[in-house]
User: Fold these one by one.
Assistant:
Number 1:
Amino acid sequence: MQQEPDASSFPNGGIRNTFEARGYSAWDISSPAFILDHTLCIPTVFVSYTGESLDYKTPLLRSLNSVDKAATRVAKFFNPEVNHVICNLGWEQEYFLVDEALYAARPDLVMTGRTLMGHESAKNQQLEDHYFGAIPSRVEAFMVDLETEAHRLGIPAKTCHNEVAPNQFEIAPIYEEANLANDHNLLLMSLMEEVAKRHNFRVLFHEKPFAGINGSGKHNNWSLGTDNGILLFSPGKNQHDNFRFVTFVANVMAAVFKHNGLLKASIINATNAHRLGANEAPPAIISMFLGSAVSSILDMVEKVDSISKISIDGKEKITLDIAQIPELTLDNTDRNRTSPFAFTGNRFEYRAVGSSANNASALIALNAAVAAQLDDFANVVEARVAKGEDPEAAILAEVKKLLAESKAIHFDGNGYSEEWKQEAARRGLDVETSAPLMYDSYTRPDTIEMFEKTGVLSRKEIEARNEVKWEMYTKKIQIESRVLGDLAINHIIPAAVRYQSLLLDNVFKIQQLFKGSKADTISSQDLVNIEAISDHVQAIKSGVENMINARKQANRIKSEREKAIAYHDNICPFMDQIRYHIDKLELMVDNEIWPLPKYRELLFIR
Ligand code: ADP
Ligand code: MG
């Protein structure tokens, strides 16, 4: 039932010293054991000798337990027969595939999971021909193999399709109870790596492996359902059910509003930071999309004085005047692809989660925040009822209060726009864009209080986890920066100089053959290029030198937080600068001399 792995070699944020190594893993019986590569694998929690959790599973299970208790209290107001509330998760795993041989020829992909350089290819996703096109046959063979392996392990894989960017794809299962769904996601990710190799592919889970095209996320479709089959975020067929729906939506709004900074911190890391706020991904601001139908219901609720006045229209239909096409049913929400947290009919879709993430991080924060909110709600409603108030009137009054207080989180407009960033700041939402600073949301007094009250994480655990997050951030950027420096100095500059000397040789010969002004005319463009190559090479050299110096300075900083901030503020900008000059050189240098596979080669494998 339990084992004793080493807890000090595991990132633990100072909870364990190297000389006090004991830690325990214990069987999580709610997630089935499985056999992989002739090995019996048992899902476990991992805690230290001193009782703190070192893993994601322990706090995830605690958060599921607390949201179960709190949501059951509130669900009982409407349906006294409810005994438990289950949290459901349906993740959508996006990924890229790259040919194995080309992958091996890109040290940046091998070491960091993303390309640190590479000029945009002339054609990328402009024509949407990959998204809407057929699945490439090599990829289809991989998908079939993957689905078969997934089903063998009990992972209910269902949907496989092309995604927006060339060579980008998605796999999604049928949703399951959140703890099991997350274990299945982690298992599937490792399965994908195995199966991809059989097809001479490498799978990229990095959120932004290629600049200039779509990044990869892992949308978390999240809902709460009761043990007797009621989906709590699903509008119902009568007043009573709709009142329950509105109550739960208002509580989620309040929780997401109060903890929007924390929710963002729960999904940010060095890799997802490249995706958030970039043009095609959710912005680095958490807001909530509700859609016109639900928005107008909530507006109505704010104005009514009794629940008998709350009405929700049935689904509308569209009829196309084509005899063989049936009537189409319209969903009660449109889609807003720019929203990081969107209502989608009977669930919320948390889209800011990154493709490489362990979903537990987002779910721990979300479930704990919602549990705390539902508990507060149940407390005030019960107190009002104890004073003799009618339960329905008490619930309605409190729902109206929540709706009024948490309006700022509701945004149905275009999340990519510049105006939204300013508007969000005016509304008091968290608009921080630096990952190391976002982690401060975890240690805010209201966050710690919320986590301790729900029993999900202790202050000590939160502080230790933040240490690990800062340390990981620093290490990731440090590795990228080193790889970029090496590639620039050992691959790119020698290639550029070799090409430059070919040009110089050519100019020299022209001067000998033609002489005078004719020679100058013939070699004028070569001379411009020779100079430009020198300029770029110089810029790269000094950029790398300055970046190394900035790293040396940052490495002397003792505090993990300050060090991560220094890496973000002082080292990342050099990486962008250096890349800019390398990408310019890529366009100039002879293709035969260029040492790395280019985007057009990496992205268009069929
Ligand atoms: P999209 O159209 O957004 O790409 P997908 O079909 O790829 O959607 O994925 C939707 C995911 O949401 C699936 O995993 C599906 O099982 C899951 N899902 C559907 N209903 C619920 C629900 N009520 N709660 C949680 N997940 C759900
Ligand atoms: Mg999908």
Number 2:
Amino acid sequence: MTTVTVRTPAKINLGLSVGRPRADGYHPLATVYQAIALYDEVKARPAEAGEFTVSVTGEGQDDVPLDDTNLAVRAAQLLAKRAQVDEGVALSIHKLIAVAGGLAGGSSNAAAALLACDALWGLHSSREELAELAVELGSDVPFCLVGGNAIGTGRGEAVSSVLARGSYEWVLAYAATGLSTPQVYAEFDRLDAAGADDEPEVPEALISALRTGDPYAVGMALRNDLQPATIRLRPAVRRTLEFGDEFGALGAIVSGSGPTCLFLAADSEHAIDIAVALSSSGVCRSVQRANGPVPGARIVT
Ligand code: C5P
């Protein structure tokens, strides 16, 4: 029996500038995405016409919905509908990316399902065609298809490449439980009521730091406008971030809407030191290390 396996990376935001909500409720963003080497794997197997199922193992498996609200299932259904395919699919997801952690785990699974079902059904859609469907599925899904480093504008879905050098060593601190992205944006609105711009911009310092490939400069230029909102909802995040200073991280920041915290290390040995110290600190549930950038969704079988 044919099985297609696709691996997709987690995303982090090195810069996340957030504007005042638009008429449709979404917030205009100017973000710098980076895909990191922390992967979920999605397998697609043939199923009866109209049958779309999903099973989940690994990190946070009990928190992932198994019905039609699962983003990977929605991706498969959307592709079947658009391509007028009369087939179903049995998806199985193995997760390393934290659920509701600000790492685009669900979006990553949606991107994987698009690519896997496209191959399983022999559709040969172009990357552009898949990207159009990705936009409908969520703001981060188009980036999860391409990976690397990219600037995201609009609500994050308009992805363009960014000139960047270097490879970066990250340590991720997972929190005990996840956070809902809409809840964090709502808290951002409460905190920032009149302060946010209509047209947020990517910080110039971050773009020039990425051009030089100097992790020290990148560490100093990291920025996340959602961070105060995340800390309001999850005060323990502040303590986790402070830990970065104690261990000489080049930068410490909340990932996306959080509550995962990111620490930038000078090199892989430094990353191991930070990871070991974090693991025994009690300030987080678990620790992951990952370097970036890496490419987006890829078929591995
Ligand atoms: O696009 P996606 O479905 O991933 O977004 C999840 C939620 O996050 C949205 O329903 C919205 O509440 C919030 N969001 C936002 N502005 C964005 C992206 C997401 O307010 N640019």
